[in-house]
């Protein structure tokens, strides 16, 4: 039985700046995922169920993720009174900052199943590991919150929000190397989650482990550029991405 899985997908808290910061009057911003939140959650849970959190390729990209998260908050690199200056998203339930060494030790314990009961998993473990994995800046772009999603009439994956699926329209926002990398990672995650063959899963983990650190190295969310968007009056004044000029 896996000892640690992610049940829900929460907001990033103050691990990221407020999504709506800098929004012009009359517009609200949101963070949009390229690889969907649920895909990332299901990938972690599949690795936990397969007892492959400890696989070297999985630990490779998680170690990089922890490292890059704390580069954004360098005060978390050591102990002592600096703990109190960490954002709330990196604090435990008593308001004490979780420093990098603690997080590395927790991931090592969880991935090797040395934590025996849920009571022994620190109360902050769920939220913090989840937020670091699911809200990595390189997999996010900032855009209008009022978009067409897959459950609405007229939705088109070329211009619109991906919803619970990979956002193909993000290729109009991200640079092509990063979008291609995320597209390949998404495909490997989908294969990994659905596979019952250990070799297939391990091949996927190897590719993901090699590719994901480059995404984690991106330390800021892909920004909003008004030139890339327009309001579709025929679809409830919702925002859509424009095709790239030819």
Summarize the model shown:
The chain is mainly α. It has 6 helices and 4 strands.
If you had to describe this structure to a student in words, what would you say it looks like?
The protein is mainly alpha-helical and 246 residues long. The chain has six helices and four strands. It has helices at residues 37-49, 56-72, 100-111, 125-134, 176-194, 198-216, and strands at 29-33, 140-144, 229-232, 238-241. It has a two-stranded antiparallel sheet with strand order 1-2. Helix 2 runs parallel beside helix 6 (198-216). The model has no long low-confidence stretch (mean pLDDT 86).
Uncertain ranges: none
Largest sheet: 2 strands, antiparallel
Using the CA coordinates, give the radius of gyration. 19 Å
The level of helicity is 25-40%
Structural class: mainly alpha
- Run of helices and strands: EHHHHEHHEE
Provide the residue-averaged pLDDT. Answer: 86
Shape: globular
Please tally the β strands and state the result. Answer: 4
* Widest sheet, order of strands: 1-2
Number of helices: 6
Strand content: 5-15%
Distance between the termini: 53 Å
